[in-house]
Amino acid sequence: MMDHAHRVLEQYFGFSSFRFGQEPLIEHALNKKNALGIMPTGGGKSLCYQIPGLLLDGTAVIISPLISLMKDQVDSLNSHGITATYINSSLSYEQQSERMFDIQKGRYQFVYVAPERFDSEGFIRSLRRTRLSLIAFDEAHCISQWGHDFRPSYRSVVGQIQKLGELPVVMGLTATATEEVTRDIQRLLSIEDQHVVNTGFSRDNLHFQIVKGKEKHDFIQDYIRTRPKESGIIYAATRKDIDRLHQWLSREGVKVAKYHAGLSEHERKKAQNQFIQDEVTVMVATNAFGMGIDKSNVRYVIHYAMPMNIESYYQEAGRAGRDGEQSDCILLFSARDIHLQKFLIEQSLMEDEKKTEEYQKLQQMVNYCHTDKCLQEYMLTYFKDPFEHEPCEKCSNCQHTGVIKDITREAQIILSCVKRMNQRYGSGLVAKVLKGSKSQKVRETHFHTLSTYGLLSNLREKDITQMIQFLVAEGYLAVEDGKFPLLKLTQESLTVLKGERAVQMIIETAPTTHRETDVNEDLFEKLRMLRKQLAEEHKIPPYVVFSDATLKEFCLVKPQNKADMLQVKGVGEKKFEQYGVIFLEALQEETHQYS
């Protein structure tokens, strides 16, 4: 069966070999073993159910939490000559009935459905009459109550599919799953430990950056100006910020769309289509946008404000570079972001226990923004990534342009002050005491009488706070979880206070964004325009024709015949039949022009 799988991979999808982790997942499915795949965004999760769906008898049902993802996936499969459809609320009753009739007749190899479909007994009855090859849960972390994006409607599907009687093989796929979430998914989908495939969370093509102390609008303006034709997403925390950013970028002449829950469904759908079809280059959005968006050529993701937790950040940032090309993930940090996220947690309807958990996750996110360690390594450690990793040598910490300063003396003063304040106060008041503030709070508590009062008066209060947060991020201080986190000493604190360990911190780090220069930009742009024209003719997203990675390889190797072109990653027999000749003509014309 795996020999067949390799042939299907090459014939339909144009790849000569599987990516790491794909083969064992496919093999589990072909052997009728329920399986879970934990793979980073862009790791090729879709192929893990698409290839078994093509090889096993019957129709594969893919449960997806987003309508937009369904259409993208169906367009992509149809472009490969594979029969696929979707059932969701965007269809009329007549369209749904017609498609359900065709499904029962076995006319589709793949059917994408929203989780809410399983609330319908009529839908369950129709599936009972259908020969099913496989059921796949895309974005499987949504079924776990411990996941950062838990959806009760998605979890209820687990019970509903039991009504189908004898189940086909079941597969779960996700890009973000902590150990707790993984165990929960295993329990819900009856997946044994040996059938869990975790390829790790590392994304080697992503360049993670944290930008502090720079005016956010200035940074965005400078950044976008240097890459006007590249697709990017800017995430902000509130609708107000989205509207303001959208208005400003529009005035600056940027082709930009916006997406948030305050817009009508029609407005959101229009914005999404404009972005997917490359009609606009920038999408400004809240976290309501993006999960399951299959746009492969997003070259950068900028977070205008710090997200609430690392799970959300890694998933949102991971929407850059799905095609494997080098891409930037930039977080514009300011201290105000922390207060905003605390406010959002406090105003939520979560139980107190859940709020405490969210405060803990927020603290980890704050630590990420203040660590001097490799940023990718920090996140991989958080996710308990199963593989050994060296520093990435690409993030803003690995490639810092600032200076490394010995802050051992300042650290000892800070730790000593926390101890003298009986470890019962947060960073804000500690910074005021060290600065020598004459505020009412300092005088009321008599902290102006402490021996550490004013010992760092030569620094700005903001800089002292940043040092405190750095000490927390590096484990020299701990915070007691809650709305008002209190600073506590740790075992590491003692080694610093005793002078047994030096503390060093990077000062004034500047971002080091990545730019590629090895591709003929004029030819690449010519091929992009040709791709866009074909996409409009076939009413599909441009990246479904060929990915940016494939176009760049065309630019580098300039294939001159069918055999050459089939050697390019992403070009299979089916794709060549549809689009190959047109691109060959363009490449031949380019070659003759310079020969």
Automatic annotation (TrEMBL):
GO terms for molecular function: DNA helicase activity; hydrolase activity. Keywords: ATP-binding, DNA damage, DNA recombination, DNA repair, DNA-binding, Helicase, Hydrolase, Isomerase, Metal-binding, Nucleotide-binding, Zinc. Residues 517-595 form the HRDC domain. Residues 218-367 form the Helicase C-terminal domain. Its EC number is 5.6.2.4. It comes from the Bacteria. Pfam families: DEAD (PF00270), Helicase_C (PF00271), HRDC (PF00570), RecQ_Zn_bind (PF16124), RQC (PF09382). Its cofactor is Mg(2+); Zn(2+). Coiled coil: none annotated. It catalyses: Couples ATP hydrolysis with the unwinding of duplex DNA by translocating in the 3'-5' direction. Residues 26-195 form the Helicase ATP-binding domain. PANTHER family: ATP-DEPENDENT DNA HELICASE Q1, DNA HELICASE RECQ FAMILY MEMBER. Belongs to the helicase family. RecQ subfamily. This is DNA helicase RecQ. It comes from Pontibacillus chungwhensis. The lineage of its organism: Bacteria, Bacillati, Bacillota, Bacilli, Bacillales.
